[in-house]
């Protein structure tokens, strides 16, 4: 059998298995989550034998893929409500297949002209959604131009690191060669993603120099109290390298007041970074983009397409208002890559940590192109609407408490006053396998947390979830 025939037949096996898997998940024909022990899964998947025999094709592949899919967490299941990960559109999944087969490592244009061109186009599409504008590719690196720029990278954590690297370069241009002046701090929201503190440590500033901004009772940043914090830090000899705002926060999905924060940053000449990894999806909706009013005043924005935009993981955008800050963030040389050459396109390598980069723009493009911009907007709006409808439903149920009315597709609630009860309810729900939800600490208390990512999840699913929670609670109280 030729390799081409083998690929065609094996691809048919995989695609058919995936089609059945997606349908079975959507029909709730299997648990949303099933956590077998790691060692038993290694044995069940027969990993060592396949490695030794090199037989993963034909019937052996069919058997393997069935066992593998049976052990996955089913994001296409309406009971998937746990995390900020997209239920991927099948066209986006096909893009991942195309990328895997072509393997164009497109950090430099010559290694992936089509992939680079699509990423360039989609980055500019995202810049326009923010309210910024790009330029033709032949001026993309022009040091005399103040246009916006960006790059797609492998996840929001790496994106936040890259954005803060640009902020560091803007604040202390000599840092790359001369090192840390020793007095830099970064101010982040109370509800900031853990990657912020990690990024500050990786950048050599020290985790203790990642400080929390003043916040109201719900966790939103209080701009009125920021100035005093900045003044106090300066009196102690500290430089505020950057201020971070959430759009939206991870725990409860709340948006910080961007216009007010931006005004202070502009007055104090401090870099403003907006972490819109999750909530940036609202920018595609005329109905919801008011949640991000003022985002165009930021210096940098992170926006994950693999969250609310149905794009397969991972696909995160690092976007800056002035391209030069990102272009100058990496002061280095690699003579085999960076040298004088014919350049009909644009090399993204100067804007990213990665030297090898997947065709992330293809995943995003094929997803949006299959849905259309209006279809994508309806999808994002639908997720938010379902969260708000679920909040109204939970509010009517005796024995349940909402943390706060959701602004996006994240909903926190609890039942009983015992934090440990929330964790035990979640544990038993996952053991049953009909629903997969998460839990978070918010305002000093433990909450059950729902993230509406699946467009198929409806209020009947939430009613069934609440019924299960009531049953578990009743047993716990006996």
Automatic annotation (TrEMBL):
GO CC entries: cytoplasm
UniProt keywords, alphabetically: Decarboxylase, Lyase, Pyridoxal phosphate
GO biological-process terms attached to the record: carboxylic acid metabolic process
Recorded GO MF terms: carboxy-lyase activity; pyridoxal phosphate binding
Family recorded in the similarity comment: Belongs to the group II decarboxylase family.
The protein's name in its UniProt record: Diaminobutyrate decarboxylase
Gene3D superfamilies in UniProt: 3.90.1150.170, Type I PLP-dependent aspartate aminotransferase-like (Major domain) (3.40.640.10)
UniProt cross-references to InterPro entries, sorted A to Z: PyrdxlP-dep_de-COase, PyrdxlP-dep_Trfase, PyrdxlP-dep_Trfase_major
Residues modified as N6-(pyridoxal phosphate)lysine: 307
Cofactor(s) needed by this chain: pyridoxal 5'-phosphate
Pfam families given in the database record: Pyridoxal_deC
């Amino acid at each position: 059998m030729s390799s081409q025939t083998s690929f065609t037949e094996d691809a048919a096996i995989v695609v058919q298995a995936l089609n059945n898997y997606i349908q079975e998940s959507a029909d709730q024909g299997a648990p949303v989550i099933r956590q077998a022990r790691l060692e038993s899964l290694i044995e069940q998947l027969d990993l060592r034998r396949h490695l030794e025999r090199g037989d993963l094709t034909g019937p052996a592949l069919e058997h393997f893929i069935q066992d593998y899919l049976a052990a996955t967490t089913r994001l296409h299941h309406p009971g998937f409500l746990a995390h900020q990960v997209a239920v991927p559109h099948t066209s986006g999944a096909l893009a991942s297949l195309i990328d895997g087969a072509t393997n164009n490592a497109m950090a430099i244009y010559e290694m992936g002209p089509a992939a680079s061109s699509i990423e360039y186009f989609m980055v500019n599409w995202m810049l326009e959604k923010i309210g910024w504008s790009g330029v033709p590719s032949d001026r993309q690196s022009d040091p005399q131009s103040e246009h916006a720029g960006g790059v797609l990278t492998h996840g929001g954590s790496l994106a936040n690191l890259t954005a803060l690297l640009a902020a560091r370069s803007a604040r202390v241009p000599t840092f790359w060669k001369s090192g840390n002046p020793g007095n830099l701090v970064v101010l982040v929201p109370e509800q900031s993603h853990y990657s912020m503190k990690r990024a500050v440590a990786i950048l050599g500033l020290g985790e203790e120099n990642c400080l929390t901004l003043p916040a109201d009772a719900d966790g939103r940043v209080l701009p009125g109290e920021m100035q005093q914090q900045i003044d106090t830090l300066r009196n102690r000899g500290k430089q505020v390298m950057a201020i971070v705002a959430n759009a939206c926060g991870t725990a409860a999905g709340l948006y910080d007041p961007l216009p007010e924060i931006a005004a202070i940053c502009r007055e104090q000449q401090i870099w403003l970074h907006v972490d819109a990894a999750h909530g940036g999806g609202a920018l595609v909706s005329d109905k919801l983009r008011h949640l991000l009013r003022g985002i165009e005043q930021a210096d940098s924005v992170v926006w994950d397409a693999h969250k609310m935009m149905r794009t397969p993981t991972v696909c995160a955008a690092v976007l800056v208002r002035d391209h030069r800050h990102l272009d100058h963030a990496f002061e280095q040389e690699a003579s085999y890559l960076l040298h004088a050459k014919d350049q009909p396109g644009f090399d993204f390598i100067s804007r990213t940590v990665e030297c090898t980069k997947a065709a992330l723009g293809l995943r995003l493009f094929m997803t949006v192109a299959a849905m259309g911009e209006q279809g994508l907007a309806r999808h994002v709006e639908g997720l938010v609407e379902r969260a708000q409808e679920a909040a109204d439903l939970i509010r009517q149920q005796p024995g349940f408490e909402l943390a706060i009315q959701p602004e996006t597709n994240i909903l926190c609630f609890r039942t009983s006053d015992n934090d440990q009860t929330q964790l035990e309810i979640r544990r038993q729900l996952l053991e049953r396998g009909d629903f997969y939800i998460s839990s978070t600490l918010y305002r000093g208390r433990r909450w059950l947390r729902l993230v509406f990512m699946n467009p198929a999840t409806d209020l009947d699913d939430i009613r069934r979830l609440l019924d299960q929670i009531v049953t578990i609670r009743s047993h716990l109280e006996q």
